Amino acid sequence: MPLSLAPMGTLTVFIDRSWDFSGPIWGRSCSAFREAVWDCDEFVLRSVWANGTYTRGADVAQVNVRVMFQGAGDLLVYVDYLARGDLPPHVEGRAPVIMTGRVEIDEKHERHRWLNRTQVVGRGMLDMALRTQTYEMYALR
Prior knowledge:
CATH topology: Porin
Shape: globular
Mean pLDDT: 94
Helix content: under 10%
Strand order of the largest sheet: 1-2-3-4-5-6-7-8
Distance between the termini: 10 Å
Radius of gyration: 15 Å
Structural class: mainly beta
Strand content: over 45%
């Protein structure tokens, strides 16, 4: 059975503060996010907590992000993802990063629990003027 992609709207991360330094092996950055919003037909989620770190070489960055979202009622959704991309053109807004992630939702939420059994992927673009990273999101089916 071939894999397919189910559209899952957009995930927008609003960058707040970042700290950069040279680690012993490569460059490291840690960021706090002002907000993250995941908007799709399944739900509209807003972060209650979000942060990320990335490591980078001269041309490639690898971003590790963790977000706790809250939706309608008592819906809590935890997402962690890893994104990689070609750093110079991405920072300039000319090239995407590709992310893969995991979603965790309480099994009592029958409509959404199928996401516990798959992974999400996204294609993200950076907008330094708005300080946002916005992903076109999909779930693997």
